[in-house]
Design brief:
This protein is mainly β and about 240 residues long. The chain has 2 helices and 15 strands. Strands 8-1-15-5-6-7-9 form a 7-stranded antiparallel beta sheet, with no helix packed on it. Strands 2-3-4-14-11-10 form a 6-stranded antiparallel beta sheet. The protein has a two-stranded antiparallel ribbon with strand order 12-13.
Length: about 240
């Protein structure tokens, strides 16, 4: 039987996935998306790894892609069956994946295999069908064998970022790209040319979420801790990989 080969196109990394960790990176990789061209399903936006709040015996792994979707664009957004997402778990601290959880799309369904020991490591992957398989219809949650749960579909963007306050703080530090001095030290004498007022020195509480009203495509896999080959700390990173014909 022919095996599909998938090649890395994007990656997001976290250090220690024990209780709760998150990472976010929206439309920053030019190969898979940009602020001008928009995002894509290869463009990883968020990675979350945490202990399930409803079941302390489980871990939850969440990936999001195709960030900054408007409500109107969300209705047309869909996953690509030529893209596979792979949660990589390093359980012995050598920064090489010891187990993987794979998510891909087939015949309109989300499919996951794992956690499973990969047949190869690095930039290329094949679907690891030795792992436990779970399927779910898009926008529905399904629980399969061994207590593994799977969801995939459009959700609100979970990333909160007060973008314009951040830009003001950066400018107040003299860290703007156009600033030759670039002191890195805040100065109230450094004025915003549009308002003739000092730049902000800190974030507001609460801030203003620049991503409010935008959506992402999300995939969520919940697995029993007993299926992860470690009892405590592990590294986790998420990759998007494109099928190679």
């Amino acid at each position: 039987m022919k095996k599909m080969l998938y090649l890395l196109v994007g990656v997001t990394t976290l250090s220690l996935g024990v209780f709760y960790l998150k990472g976010a990176d929206h439309v920053d990789a030019p190969a898979v998306g940009s602020l001008a061209a928009g995002s894509s399903v290869s463009d990883l936006a968020d990675l979350f790894a945490f202990e399930s709040p409803s079941n302390s015996n489980n871990y939850v792994f969440i990936g999001t892609v195709n960030g900054l979707l408007s409500p109107s664009a969300t209705a047309e957004a869909q996953f690509d069956q030529d893209v596979m997402y792979e949660f990589n778990l390093d359980t012995d601290g050598d920064l090489v994946e010891d187990q993987v959880i794979q998510v891909f799309f087939e015949d309109g369904d989300a499919v996951t295999y794992g956690p499973v020991t990969p047949s190869s490591t690095g930039l290329s992957s094949v679907i690891e069908k030795e792992g436990t398989e779970v399927r779910a219809q898009i926008a529905s949650t399904n629980e399969g064998a061994n207590g593994i749960k799977l969801f995939a579909g459009a959700t609100d963007d979970p990333f909160f970022f007060d973008l314009f306050q951040f830009i003001g703080i950066v400018n107040g530090l003299g860290a703007a790209l156009s600033d030759d001095t670039n002191t890195g030290v805040y100065s109230a004498e450094r004025l915003n040319p549009d308002t003739n007022e000092p730049y902000p020195a800190a974030f507001n509480d609460p801030g203003t979420d620049a991503l409010a009203g935008t959506n992402v495509l999300s995939f969520v896999v919940e697995v029993p801790k007993s299926m992860i080959s470690t009892s405590s700390t592990f590294n986790v990173w998420l990759e998007s990989k494109m099928v190679q014909q």
